[in-house]
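Issue 218. Parser rejects a valid record. Input:
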Amino acid sequence: MEDHNSAHLSEPVSPAASVASAEIAAEFAALTVEEKEQRRAEWSQELARVEEEINTLRTVLASKTRHASDLKRKLGITVWKELTDDVNQGVKNLKESHVFQRTESVLKTTGEKTASVFGSITSGITSKLSQMKNSESMRSIEASVGTAYENVKTKVTSRSGSVSSFPDALDENNSSSGLNSPTDSLTK
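Output the parser choked on:
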């Protein structure tokens, strides 16, 4: 059983731990059975003391944590506020980082180039529309539409003499011809 424990003590974790474990194993192997028993008893007592201290520290830590929570509550510091502050600090740290600043610069440059391209496209379209508006064919279309409007307006006015709008002229024409408009049934 002693060989099992000494083998367990000599299991390497890292090169430095391996050297230390080998030294401890060699020292332990050189002890008599009574000395080994005495060392194990000492180590067991020390382990019990250390575990008791750990438990005491855990209890004190839990008490201090509760006290801190009570103080935060009295000060109006909520979990939500702490989380918000942590997130804001994280965002601030991110913005101050070199990578973010470089990314921000690239995005800004890209946005400026995109705006320039869209500006060029918009000015090109505006220019083409202006050219179309001033072209002979557009003037011809405007003249034709204007003439057609004037003809309709003149005919409507000449028939009744008192009608001032096209819908009124239609209503008057329908009533004189005996036709009913779709809205007649709604008004009657």
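Fixed in the parser; the record now loads. Residues 15-157 form one domain.
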